């Protein structure tokens, strides 16, 4: 990584050509998610407009429109003159307006698909973790349940929640399940922890994580899987409810 | 006895890796001492001086070694408090620099100060073998990490470390015992299978004492230099049918 660059894998995903028509909203969403997820860090300089437009395969005017939206949302700052350019501004907390829009734009079908996939991945990870987790893994997971419990901001809650599921997949000793869990957390994590709109209320999320962990610790794979499935199913059901509410408003 | 041969081969691989880490640690210490003699702290770009030996090491073992390099403690570099000079073998083409998430606020933050292979050598001064484990925020592979603390006097500079692909040990075991031999496993100090020649207990699964065949003595795998090393001994043992 260069001094203020984006990491390689992230750059690939963030700056890969857009395949869905190259509308300014799509460009803006791709970049804002990347900023919110930390794929583009606070203060990092974006590539020059002409280069970025070429990488994304969109017209420069489309990119400018997208950057203007992001500036308006406070996610990008533009400085003029020498050493100038566009810089990412990571919000301390995710912008509620942006999350609402994302949730409105996702369809029920897409949300259900994400939920189905997440249930399959996280459920199997919990089942295998119950067979394969060592004392170190269990200690790590306990730490993450405590971290979720003491987390006050939506961002901290989302990170502790995401890390718990990612560490469960790692405790299952599976690189593939872990990679997929990370991708799913990137896709849905922020939505589940919308400021003042938690899909699973904080206290219940803590209780459910603890229940999952106890089943893993006790080697009860089938039980661990079914609790995870219920936990994730609840979250997705709530997101679908939010979506319908937003779309119908 | 084949399990003795297998244990010998595994020991040789570990010894060779730790020999390399001693050399790499010396190089980092020398860079640090040089910068102190100049009355300043090291900067991240000066670690490029380590690239030549690192690349040579990677070229020597394209299959076995997934990556190697140094990981710095927070008070060592003048311009970075979180930094790795780490290179990975690629199947074809030159080594690749490992790019990780240095932002503590991100879900994917590479939190190495709390990783066992960094925290244990820092705390105990001993070397360490960790794994096999899924290294999800670093290299994305199923891995073992060997690490040596690097100190300058009392000052902990970080670790010199290397990643060995977990798969590599399977070949070593199969080379000595064969797939048709009696079911055997290489087991780490926490009871996790590193490699086996049987689907009964595959790499990553946990094995309990009662599952090992006590009629055959197990063969320990230890660091032959006899220095302290957390995570060892491993053992090669036959499994109960």
TrEMBL record, chain A:
CDD domains: WHTH_GntR. Residues 21-91 form the HTH gntR-type domain. PROSITE patterns: HTH_GNTR. Keywords: DNA-binding, Transcription, Transcription regulation. The lineage of its organism: Bacteria, Bacillati, Actinomycetota, Actinomycetes, Kitasatosporales. The keyword Protein transport does not apply. This is FadR family transcriptional regulator. Gene3D superfamilies: GntR ligand-binding domain-like (1.20.120.530), Winged helix-like DNA-binding domain superfamily/Winged helix DNA-binding domain (1.10.10.10). One of its GO terms (molecular function) is DNA binding. The keyword Transcription applies.
UniProtKB/TrEMBL annotation, chain B:
CDD domains: PDC1_MCP_like (cd12913). This is Cache domain-containing protein.
